[in-house]
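Task: sequence in, structure out. Protein: DNA replication and repair protein RecF.
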Amino acid sequence: MIVEQLSLVDFRNYAAADVSLHPGPNVFVGRNGQGKTNLAEAIAYFATLGSHRVSQDAPMVREGKDAAFIRTRLGHGERRVTLEIQLNKQGSNKARVNGAPVKTAELPRYAQVVLFAPEDLQIVRGDPSARRRFSDQLLIQRAPRMASVLQDYDRVLKQRNALLKSARARGVRGDGLSTLDVWDDKLVTLGSQVIEARLRLADDLTQPLTDAYTAIAGADHQPGLHWAMSVAGADPEEDDAGAEGERSATPIHDQFRAALAARRASELERGVTLVGPHRDDLVLKVRGLPVKGYASHGESWSVALSLRLASAELLRAESLLGDPVLILDDVFAELDTDRRVRLADVAQGYEQVVVTAAVEQDVPAPLRTQVVRVDSGRILPEAPEANDG
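Result:
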């Protein structure tokens, strides 16, 4: 899949912008704060329905405006498709495919993008929410229907939490809240789908993660990952990640329902849902130890980058769209020379790569075949190539 054209109106610091992209590497160069990352963010939005920098859409709308517009033309072989998204500060976003209105959840069916940025260190070093978000965005790309499942789960969770909070205020205890059973059924049905999809994803990422880590770090530190699940008794949100053990043969649906029953009194006492995929954590390891708290800075970078490259390999193997677009946002400045070269070697194998950098020379020469300069929300004309003779 190739992004051929990107157009922005009132997106971040762009009043209006049009940029053409090419197969192979595309490098956006400019000082910090000029809008390079905004271009990467706009491309990735179609694939993940979110930003890698903010959890809400409103900050992506230009100051003083009510909506931002992103339009892109994608190419896959002889096929062309135009995607459009209107990000509204108030109300629901609107989407179009080839000019026809569609639900926004349909967009990831047409676009696959894997973006790595320095913020991804939070995946390995941050709270469990960062790892859940990484997994769920990849789930959506892998199976776009999961966007609706995740949205429905969040809606049911909020309604169930509101009921628990109200019951707590009224002093309800024990089995005195029969209306909770209806929400339990919905929570279990939707949440089990999320958990099962996450478990399959972790299994399928294991080998690509190992391969990517070795390619980037130049060493086999035995990277690994597994889910610590609240339905199985762990509570990562309370700093109890749980030990990795044999996965229970009991169906997730049954584990979920039993865990809810066991925690009912605690939930009524605290006024919040304590069991479900919203409490789980993806535990990452190197050399047999959790990355969070034990890995060195270089190992943490390698694990975070390897997670994204493993994601790209997984999508590449499964997708009918060809390679996902690989975006490396302000990454090379953070890497030593050896890792820069190794990453460039991996990136060159993709149909299209988008790189952002403040300093052009930070990007290995093989990736600098197409360079676009960005200044204060403007795409500058390409400078003529220098004569090496």
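The two ends are 36 Å apart (CA to CA).
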